[in-house]
Write a structure and sequence with these properties.
Strands 1, 2, 3, 4, 5, 6, 7, 8 and 9 form a nine-stranded antiparallel sheet that branches. By secondary structure, the chain is an alpha+beta fold. It has 14 helices and nine strands. It has two domains: about 1-70; about 90-255 and about 340-435, Vanillyl-alcohol Oxidase, Chain A, domain 3 (3-Layer(aba) Sandwich). The protein is globular. It has helices spanning about 1-10, 15-45, 45-85, 105-115, 125-130, 160-170, 230-235, 255-270, 280-300, 315-320, 325-335, 360-370, 395-415, 430-435; strands spanning about 90-95, 135-145, 145-155, 175, 195-200, 240-250, 340-350, 380-385, 425. A hairpin with a 2-residue loop joins strand 2 (about 135-145) and strand 3 (about 145-155). Helices cover about 45% and strands about 15% of the residues.
């Protein structure tokens, strides 16, 4: 009735409308101020009664929502834990052939093929069975100088992984082995071993690409300088009682969210406004009251002037873009065109206390990683504020570093895709650059495990019993 009377007065005349609006506004503000002042007095004199009053006048609705969301999180966590407990993982050791004509492009193709492991959960699978996306873990380890390439995968994806490897490396040998991490200490400090470890994180948004293996090929001769050669050389120099672990955990994902993220960054760099996201039903419901009030205001005060259209600054922005900026936009577009994974990268060095030497391996590993960094696009850096073991801590340094050692070793042993830092996107060519079977014509590390014999098909004229 009050709304109808207000609209009637608005139609009757501008002066009457102004008086009614002014009276209603003054009345509402006066009552609101008085009620708020009364509530503050009540809260100050008797806070318990004030809380009871809030609860009885709508506060219980907020508590119901909070309880619902808390129960939702606990339920999903319990179902996912039960689902994870049923999984069986296998650790596969890959022995590369002594002579191979394959390049890093073969591993790039392998990662593209492994995107077939993506299996999104339905509503029932997620909330009742607790299904989560299966991960794959790619590792290079050195145990006292003996280097081994490993892939850890759930047993139902073993055939997919082996097919991906054999398709590119027909002479490779794949063997299921025991988990080497179970033989190393997992708690620090202890009497026998010392530990150092880090996780790597990107310095910019993960839509910016790292330097890929194509940048390490000579433009004229095509000769490939393997960026992992220095890491493998350092790994081969470990002695008795030393071991180091290098791990990349990848999670297959749907590509549309990453594509939207990359397109938004491209629009920003090009000086264009990104397209407005599609409104959901919830968005429309939230906007409905605002739309009604806006319509009412336009009836009372009259229609406002339409905003003037401004010239699109895109053309001017592109004219002022430097060649380097255009190169960055093109690089982001090239990465966007490739298959993406969510990834975590960890490195752990464990040794007996009498032979432990962090500078012996840490510098070589971090130096190898810096080969993939560029100043105008992407770079990976070791994180030391929350996860990585750091020598720059001030308060409770030993205690905090020991806690970090335990956490990073546990995250490595469980091949967790949620412990530690947030995951970030890497394309198949970036993954192939960071983890690939050695190009043996260029890598001379003698301790890399290789196949001793070459497999050949039997002659067609061999008689069979």
């Amino acid at each position: 009735m009050a709304a109808d009377q207000l609209l009637f007065n608005a139609d009757a005349g501008g002066g009457a409308t102004q008086n009614v609006v002014s009276s209603v506004s003054n009345f509402d503000l006066t009552n609101l101020a008085a009620g708020f002042s009364s509530f503050l007095d009540r809260a100050g004199n008797d806070p318990i009664n004030a809380m009871i009053w809030i609860f009885l006048h709508g506060g219980w609705i907020v508590l119901i929502f909070l309880a619902f969301f808390a129960a939702r999180i606990l339920w999903l966590d319990s179902r996912q834990g039960a689902f994870a407990a049923k999984r069986r993982f296998v650790l596969l050791a890959i022995d590369v052939p002594k002579v191979s004509e394959q390049t890093v492009k073969a591993v790039d193709n392998m990662f593209a093929h492994l995107a077939g492991a993506h299996s999104p959960a339905s509503f029932l699978e997620k909330w009742w069975e607790g299904k989560t996306q299966d991960t794959l873990t790619f590792e290079i380890v050195s145990i006292e100088g003996h280097i081994q390439y490993l892939i850890r995968v759930i047993d139902k994806l073993r055939d997919l992984v082996e097919a991906s490897i054999y398709a590119q490396y027909p002479d490779a040998e794949i063997t299921e082995v025991e988990d080497y991490t179970s033989l190393a200490p997992s708690h620090y400090p202890n009497d026998s071993h010392e530990c150092w470890g880090v996780e790597l994180e990107p310095v910019k948004s993960d839509v910016y690409p790292l330097k890929s293996y194509e940048a390490f090929e000579h433009g004229l001769t095509g000769e490939f300088k393997d960026p992992l050669a220095v890491m493998l050389e350092a790994f081969s120099r470990l002695g008795a009682g030393e071991q180091c672990w290098y791990q990349i955990v990848i999670t297959p994902i749907a590509q549309k969210d990453y594509v939207a993220k990359a397109q938004k960054e491209i629009m920003k760099l090009a000086g264009r406004e990104p397209p407005a996201p599609k409104e959901t039903m919830v968005d429309k419901m939230l906007k409905a009251p605002v739309s009604i009030l806006s319509s009412a205001a336009s009836i009372i005060t009259g229609p406002s002037e339409a905003p003037k259209k401004e010239k699109d600054p895109f053309s001017a922005k592109m004219m002022l873009t430097t060649p380097g900026e255009r190169k960055v936009i093109e690089a982001i577009e090239n990465k966007m065109a490739k298959i993406q994974y969510l990834c975590k990268i960890r490195f752990v060095y464990i040794a007996k206390k009498e032979v432990f030497s962090k500078p012996k391996i840490a510098g070589s590993f971090l130096g190898a990683i810096k080969q993939f960094n560029t100043n105008d696009m992407q770079a990976l850096k070791p994180e030391s504020k929350r996860v990585g073991i750091s020598s720059t801590l001030v308060f409770f340094k030993a205690r905090r570093n020991n806690t970090r050692k335990n956490r990073i070793v546990l995250a490595y042993q469980t091949r967790s895709n949620w412990r530690g830092l947030d995951s970030f996107h890497l394309a198949t060519d970036e993954l192939a650059t960071l983890w690939h079977l050695p190009v043996l014509l260029n890598v001379k590390a003698p301790q890399v495990k290789k196949t001793e014999t070459k497999k050949v098909e039997p002659p067609s004229n061999v008689p069979f019993a």
